[in-house]
Amino acid sequence: MSEKVIRQQYDQVANLYDRRWSTYIAKTLSFLKTWAHISPEATVLDIGCGTGEFERLLLTENPQQMITGVDISEEMLLVAKQKCRAYPNVSFLTASASALPFANNSFDVIVSASTFHYFDDPETSLKEMRRVLKPDGKVVILDWCKDYLLCRICDFVLKFVDPAYKQCYTQREFHSLFTSAQFDIKCATKFRFGIIWGMMIATATPQTY
Hints:
Layout lengths: L1 H19 L1 H15 L6 E5 L5 H9 L4 E6 L2 H10 L6 E5 L12 E7 L8 H11 E12 L4 H13 L9 H10 L2 E11 L3 E10 L3
Parallel strand pairs: 1-2, 1-4, 2-3, 4-5
Antiparallel strand pairs: 5-7, 6-7
């Protein structure tokens, strides 16, 4: 049910999304790009890619980067496809994080920005990421952090006013979900920008034992 609601919401705002959230998008995705250290040779999967802004950032530096973006909003993907139309090495698909349409061991790097709080079943989604990730690959997820007071307030309010919203997590809860999905956290941090936004990011690799 919630994926249908999310799809409807983002289909409606797709053409306005980049302008409405320009500062948030620029700051969070620039941080993600710097943190992730994605090599030019890596095959990248972006889960919840939205309008393709992260793809655009990567391509500015590495025009040959092999990237696949997935999202459940077809209208957001139309914007992304238009934005990256000059790059045959980039593709976009409609797909859910909990049912990725890819073979095992397909990607070197998986990223996801500001989507984790929408996942109905985050552990299932993380297990899907592990399935399609190469054994020596890495997952990098950035999302809101409930360790910050204003994020706790937003989390409480959104559960009442936004039927698409699921929840955000403390950093400890976030890391516990990775562990349950058989990932090891390699590096992680929390940070803030502006008055409202408290964020966290983690890089994780598949457990090998």
